[in-house]
Amino acid sequence: MSASHPYSRELKHREDQLALQYLPAVKAMSFRLKERLPSSIDYMDLCAIGTEELVKLARRYDEAQNDSFWGYAKTRVYGAMLDYLRSLDVVSRSSRKLIKEIDHAIEAYMADHDDEPSNRELASVLGIEEEKIHEARIASDIYTVMSLDDQLGTPEEGGMLERLEQEDLIDSIKKVLHGFDEREQIIIQLYYFEELTLKEISEIVNITESRISQIHKTVIRRIRDAVGGR
Asked: What's the CA gap between 183 and 219, in Å, rounded?
């Protein structure tokens, strides 16, 4: 039994060194995700969640099955951070209906004023307390970093994507995007595929971050309507 201790210690040392090696990558991922989230979300919380998952993965890693540790760990670390965001009280069932109502109200307001309404203006339009508007808008901003399945599904429906053929979903998305102008399509491309922040996209296309955010939410809503109508 005692002969195995040096090997166990060496194995644990290698695992910890592996985790330490990729800790800067986790910090960078946390920072990048934080930039896409409301100010109420703490970077250190994201980093702690990612680091904890990194250590777990390092201790389970099998070089014989995976050539690259970070290739194996990256999506799992990011997924752990998203799980943390899903667990927050602001991302609750009760807020989802209000989020949809707010998004519709913002879209209508911006069509008339070319500017985003304040929480007070939305509270007046919807007849809802300003604090509830504030909390729901935070939840809405959190949803924008979630997977498409999270954004299209609801707790009652489960994962909508699981019940659809991938080709059908892609066709629906293409049809919806076809209805937007070139600049709006570029925004979606930059946000989802290049993973740029709203600030970075704003500098590229020269429109406000709030307008970019609303375009994104409008696209998601129209995709959801198209998919849900099947």
From this structure: 13
Write the CA distances from 44 to 21, 31, 40, 91, integer angstroms.
19, 9, 12, 19
Q: Domain spanning 158-230: which CATH class is it, in words?
A: mainly alpha
What is the C-alpha separation between 167 and 164, in angstroms, rounded? 8
Q: pLDDT tens track of the chain, all 230 residues?
A: 444 455 455 445 566 788 888 899 999 999 988 888 888 889 999 999 999 999 999 888 777 666 788 888 988 999 999 889 888 755 556 667 788 788 888 888 888 877 778 899 999 999 989 988 888 888 777 777 776 666 665 444 444 445 445 556 667 677 777 877 888 888 888 887 777 888 889 899 888 887 888 788 777 777 777 765 44
CB 176 within 8 Å of CB 226: yes
CATH topology for the 4-87 domain: Rna Polymerase Sigma Factor; Chain: A (1.10.1740)
Name the DSSP class of 22: T
Do 158 and 209 touch, CB atoms closer than 8 A? no
User: Across-strand partners of 154?
Assistant: 158
- The answer to whether the predicted template modeling score (pTM) of the entire model surpasses 0.85 is no
Rg of the Cα atoms in the chain: 21
Query: Cα angle vertex 204, ends 201, 208, to 5°?
Result: 60
How many CB atoms neighbour CB 54 within 10 A?
26
Residues contacting residue 25 through CB under 8 Å, at least 6 positions apart = 70, 74
8 A C-beta contact, residue 227 and residue 152: yes
